[in-house]
Structure formats: C-alpha cells, structure tokens
Amino acid sequence: MRRSAALVVLAALCLAGCDSEVTGTGNGVAAPVPDPFAPLREIDPCKVIDEQALAGLGTLGPREATTIGGGLGCTAALTLTTGARTVVGVNVGMAVPDGARSVDLGGTQGFQDEYCNIVLPRAEAPPRRYGVQVSAGSGVGQTRAEACAQTISVATALRERLTAPPTHADSGARSPFAGKDPCRPAGLVANARSSTHLNFTTCEHTGADTMTVRFDIDSRAPQGKPVRIGDKEGTTGQTAPHACTVEWTAGTAVGGARYIVSVRLEANPPRQDLCTDAVKAAAAVNGYLS
C-alpha cells in the first residue's frame, strides 16, 4: 500500500468479510456469484472529494487514489481556514460496522464507527450493509471527539456527492476496475466449487486449487520474472512450493499510483505447472478487465 499521510486517517479502516459465496453447479463449473457491491462499483472516490463542496472548510490539495482496508479509495490534504491541516479520505466498498452510531449529515443519515469514520450505505447483503466511507483528521494533537466532529463536518459538506456519487464515466478518467468484480470471470480453477467475496477488492475461487484475485492501487511496481499477460507486461513468481503469484499493471491512477491486479494460485500438493496455470488464469482476468 502507499505510505503517505493518508495512513494517518485510514489505517484504522476495517471491512468485515463478505459472505457472498456461490457453490458449484455439479458439473465442475461455478455458478455466477451475486455481487453485493454491484451498486458501488462505478463510484469514483476521487470525484466525491469535491473542491467546491469543501471550500467552506478550507483549501483542498491534490487527490491520490489508494486502497486501504479492502476498499478502493482516494485521499487529499485539506488546509483548514484556521491554518491547520487534515487529510480527507473517501473509501468505496466499506461495511457499516457493528455498533456504529447514527449521525445526521444535514438531513442525510450516516453511521459513525469507533474510529470516527462515517459510512453512507448504498448496498445491502444481509446482515451487512456496504457503502461509501468518509474519514478526516490529522491524527496529531486531536482528541477523539475533535476527530469525530471534524469527520461529520467533512461528510456534511460532501453529502450531495455522497447521496448521488459521481461515477468514473462522469469523470472521463475511467478506472480499469470500474464496474468490475474480482469474482468474475468464473471457472478460473479446475473443478470450481465456490467463489467468495473476501471484500470489495478481493475474491477467493475454490476448486481443485485455490485462487485469489485482488484489485489494488499502489505506488510500487510488480516484482518477479517478466511474463506476457494478454496485452500487458507482468511478472510471475513462485512465492512458496505450493503457490505462484502473477501481477500486472492495468493503468495509472489519480496521483500517479498504479492499478495493480494480482492472481495467486495455491495448490496442494505442489506441482511443476503451477505458474503456467496461474498465467493462464491471469490472462482471463486481464481479458475481463480490458
């Protein structure tokens, strides 16, 4: 993950695992997975952080796309009218935590957790609700009450963007992850039995082997042996005798980070063709994203 001031605000983010699972059809092919996050996948978090909406609170700095806590997000520094600096974060695909308290955002209901983050739910997969999360705070010299009050002020200023979120199509800078589900395509592993959303960005496919597909936004470059993945250059590496990981860059995000896709294949017992199978699956995922 990117190591920036955003970590001050977002390090406490937490997304409960999603129990969206589908079993096999009986013929070795997994049935389509219901996506509990579908209503959220087109939302552009960097466009939710709106300069004009926040103008009454201060001056907004450059936005940086990132992934923290299992969601796809964006952060930006905000210099308050008092001269103090804070970091505003918007993270898409986060769960409403158990025990979160209801807060009023100028007539819009949000749910604030113990770390002061506020979620506005927009999707439901009982017993969980998922939505867009807002965070704010400097993490320096602030009491919890001050941080929570500041987050409410930021979320209230952004409420129109949160209730009718801008999409990647609206922004003209479409993310390769926009509208895409890591549990698609199905059938990435032999004798597929199930696919499970671990969170907004990650899916685990289970069959004869176990494969994990993850969407990430990071400043690092993929590491490993160069390999061709469809129309992309990627890397592959056998990280353990029974596991092979394939990674590639799918594009450049706001702020200069990379959209990185990783496919990790685990087999038990180990076998020699593990990375070959992982690269084939990665090519199918790349084709889906293209």
UniProtKB/TrEMBL annotation:
Lineage start: Bacteria, Bacillati, Actinomycetota, Actinomycetes, Pseudonocardiales
Annotated protein name in UniProt: DUF3558 domain-containing protein
